[in-house]
Amino acid sequence: QVQLVESGGGLVQAGGSLRLSCTASKRTFSNYAMGWFRQAPGKEREFVAAIRWSGGNTAYADSVKGRFTFSRDNTKNTVYLQMNSLKPEDTAVYYCAADPWGLGSRVLDDYDYWGQGTQVTVSS
Predict the structure, then answer these.
(1) pLDDT in tens, 68-118
(2) Which of 97, 124, 121, 118 is nearest to 32 (CA)?
(3) How far is 88 from 54, CA to CA, in rounded Å?
């Protein structure tokens, strides 16, 4: 079992930045692919970004490409989502997820473990 704890959410004005963190409880975290998903009110949870175990392969949703950067520090069992040039449409609860199979996919069902979520609110 892996526990994921997110932090770093908050309220920011449009154009601002936030950095989300997600720390995993398990040492074998370094073998896992990790993902960020988000869910806005009244909408389905959607893919934001994914990263393979090595950190060398990342994937982003088109809506965040060029603005968000996903990185990981396996020595700290932590991944980071740097979010720049935030827009009101980025407002959502952001969830960290772990994929022990290392796929790093965009598909929600490929992830076995989920954090509790952290709220990001971008004001216009």
Answers:
(1) 999 999 889 999 999 999 999 999 999 999 998 888 899 999 999 999 999
(2) 97
(3) 32
* Burial environment of residue 57 by CB neighbours within 10 A (0 to 12, 13 to 18, 19 or more): exposed
Q: Which of 33, 35, 49, 34 is nearest to 90 (CA)?
A: 49
Q: How far apart are CA 68 and CA 63, in angstroms?
A: 9
For the cut 90, the answer to whether the pLDDT of residue 121 exceeds it is yes
What are residue 69's DSSP bridge partners?
Answer: 82
Q: How far apart are CA 62 and CA 54, in angstroms?
A: 22
* Tokens 């950095």 sit on residue: 19
The Cα–Cα gap between 106 and 94 comes to 15
Q: d(Cα 35, Cα 66) in Å, to the nearest integer? A: 17
**pLDDT digits 0-9 by tens, 44-56:** 999 999 999 876 7
Q: Of 96, 81, 102, which Cα lies nearest the Cα of 31?
A: 102
Q: Compute the distance between CA of residue 96 and CA of residue 48 in angstroms, rounded to an integer.
A: 10
